[in-house]
Fold:
Amino acid sequence: MKIYLVTVGDAEGSYTESAHRTYKGALKKWNRVRLRLIRSCKRLLKSHEKEYGWVEEMYQRMIKNLSCTDPKRVDNYPHETPRILSMKLEE
Structure:
């Protein structure tokens, strides 16, 4: 049996968001996590601009990187990056 893990990792570690029986289910969750990370970056970008009066390029780069809709190609290292990992389970 195969399961799919949706994980989020950065330069300091990773954690598992969820486990799924199908790739389709994992892909839906992966996309929700990706969009959540984009929203977070947009809030930080807006906050930084308001506080300092200029735009932080790092947040713009993170938003661009997380805009990739292919879980195999998305690359936001060293910042949080969602992934789908497959694992075989023994019965």
Q: What stands out?
A: The first helix runs from residue 23 to 52.
